[in-house]
Structures are given as structure tokens and as C-alpha cells.
Amino acid sequence: MVVSLGCAEDNARTAQMGIWLPPKWHRLREHLQNAIDSKSIPVFIHTSNDSELLAEGIYHIMCREGNICVLCANFTYRTHLKKASDVRDKDARIPDPLAMYSPMPAKGAATPSRCISDDSEDDWTLQSMANKPAILFLIFTKDDVINSSAEMLRHQVNTNVRLLRALYPEIKLLVVMHGIRLYALHGCSSQGEAEFSQYGSQGPLIHSGALDDLICSLMVEHQVDTIEAEDDVELAKFMVNASASVELCFHRKSAMNFKVKPQGNRIQELPILTNTWITQLMQIPEVGKDAATAIALAYNTPAEIMESVAKAPEEFIQSLRNLPIGSKATRKLGIAVAKRVAALYSYNTKPDERVLDIKKTPTV
């Protein structure tokens, strides 16, 4: 059975998603439909594979395991981070342009014919049906703990993760803990069962500490994220949100959203002593890098600050408070930081006094 939502027939150039549910999780269909209606995104809900839209291998594993839901798209799903990483790798492997003019290229050097091909066109190719797997949801419930144990759950999770990683390394994998946190805390799987839990007398078979260890091991050992859902409604909402995120990855990222700050000319880099002086100034509370750089450029050494404070502390504070900071020079250093710097480099500052405790203007 297929439920289509928000998919117009004449909108062939629109990204579409499909969610395949195994028989055990057909109960999510109504919750998914409600979540999709509120989001108004193009999603198909599949409860069977009669038309063989999904690859037979992954559909067989999904039905055999019973706890795997598949989110598909009608394009190749790659995150913006993955695309940027691939571009950097491709640029790193581009050969030297001068190498093509060399009659005898060095051994092992790349030639123009070995340049990596641009596969970006495949990322923007839309199919008529959403049957390219993008995300696998590996779902575990409290029944997996009750029917076995916490150790068996850990073993089962790791085994399934390794299997799916080996079979489908290019597909993103998410582990879902469905109601396990509530069971670990209260011996139930929903808020309504908290007072009438039949497991409350003997206590839960898994505790929050063991669950946290399992989640951390998945992240550290397998680089797999874990999602915790209290009930079917929350799980359905998360799947729909994931579908919306996959749809966003189809569109090219606008250059107006993120602007890289210019790194500046390397020839104009500050001397080592100046950088050391900036680092020392940054140890003062509430003095950031921009403020420390502005102070270091105005006063090249600590001795210059000490001489200025000893000569005229009030004038030093007034000049320092109006010191412009930042790349656009739209901010001022401020009176509080100026007094703090003056107090630190004053001759009459006591060694046991803290800079933050000094409120008065230093005197000579």
C-alpha cells in the first residue's frame, strides 16, 4: 500500500521522499500522515513493495529484521558537509597545471587524464520515484530489553550496526531508542504507564547509565548517531523532520547563507613577539582576541602600558576605552576593560589582589 501526500503529478522536477515501513511498524502510518500534513512536504508512505520500487536486497533485510525503516529520495542524498569534503578531496588530487607541459612527468605524478571526474550532475538528477535509500532507521524498543537483557541488547545493536555498515556503507544509519529511556527511569515505556508499570516491582532491566554507555559507544566506535523517542508520535515526527532535512540537501546551498571571513594577506602576518603579547593580553578576563589585538597594536609592549599608566592613568583609561576593535571598527573597548588593563599594569597593584576585585582607577 502506498500513501502519497503533497506530490503533484506535474511537479516532476521536485525532490520527493518515500518512507518504507516493515509490518511491525505499520502502526506509524497514521502518525506519519498527520506529521506530513503539518509540514506539507512531498512524501510517500510505503507499507509493501509490490511494485518492487525498493531494491529487493534491502527490502528483504528490512522485513526479516522487522526493526528497520528506510527513508528514500528520488535523488542521491549527500549532506552539504559531505559535498564540501568531496570538493576539497578533489581539489587536493588535481595535478599541477605545469605538469602537462613536462615531457617526462615524475614517477607517480598525476597526469591530466587522471583528473577526478565531476560527478556533481548525478547529485541533481531526479528520478520519477523516490527509491534511492538515504537513511536507515534501526529501531529498538523496551521489548528488546525485557525479552533478553541489557547485555543482549548491546550485542544486538552492535551486530546490526556492523551488518548494515558493511552492506550499505554509503547510506546514513540512525539508531532509534524507542521508549527505552522511560523504561530505564521508571520501568515503563510511556508517561501513562508510569504509575501502573508491571515492571516497577522488579525494576528495569537496563538503567540510564548503561543506556548512555551504549549511545556513546555507538558514536565513538561506529560513528552512528542515536535518537531517543518516547512514543510512536515522537518517532513519526522525527522521521518527517528527517525527510524535510533530506529535501533541503537536494538544493544547492546559497552562497548568501554562509560567508567565509577573509584570512588576510599572509605577508602582513604579525611578528612572533606581537602574537605572544596578544596571547598574554587575552589572559585578562573579558579581553578577547580582537580587543587584545587592538591593544597590542596601540601599545607594542607591556612597558609602554606601564609607562602610560604611571604618567597619566586617567588619560590612559580614556584613550583605551575609545579604542576601536574588530575588523569593521564598529565597537569600542569600553570603560570596564580599560580600567582592568590599567589596574593590572599599575605600579601600586598588590600581588594578592585580583584584577576583577579592583574597582577604583589606579593611582601613582
Automatic annotation (TrEMBL):
<keyword id="KW-0479">Metal-binding</keyword>
<dbReference type="GO" id="GO:0046872">
    <property type="term" value="F:metal ion binding"/>
</dbReference>
<dbReference type="InterPro" id="IPR042530">
    <property type="entry name" value="EME1/EME2_C"/>
</dbReference>
<keyword id="KW-0234">DNA repair</keyword>
<keyword id="KW-0227">DNA damage</keyword>
<dbReference type="InterPro" id="IPR033310">
    <property type="entry name" value="Mms4/EME1/EME2"/>
</dbReference>
<dbReference type="GO" id="GO:0048476">
    <property type="term" value="C:Holliday junction resolvase complex"/>
</dbReference>
<keyword id="KW-0460">Magnesium</keyword>
<dbReference type="GO" id="GO:0051321">
    <property type="term" value="P:meiotic cell cycle"/>
</dbReference>
<protein>
    <recommendedName>
        <fullName>ERCC4 domain-containing protein</fullName>
    </recommendedName>
</protein>
<dbReference type="GO" id="GO:0004519">
    <property type="term" value="F:endonuclease activity"/>
</dbReference>
<keyword id="KW-0469">Meiosis</keyword>
<keyword id="KW-0233">DNA recombination</keyword>
<keyword id="KW-0540">Nuclease</keyword>
<keyword id="KW-0255">Endonuclease</keyword>
<dbReference type="GO" id="GO:0006310">
    <property type="term" value="P:DNA recombination"/>
</dbReference>
<keyword id="KW-0539">Nucleus</keyword>
<keyword id="KW-0378">Hydrolase</keyword>
<dbReference type="GO" id="GO:0016787">
    <property type="term" value="F:hydrolase activity"/>
</dbReference>
<dbReference type="GO" id="GO:0005634">
    <property type="term" value="C:nucleus"/>
</dbReference>
<dbReference type="GO" id="GO:0006281">
    <property type="term" value="P:DNA repair"/>
</dbReference>
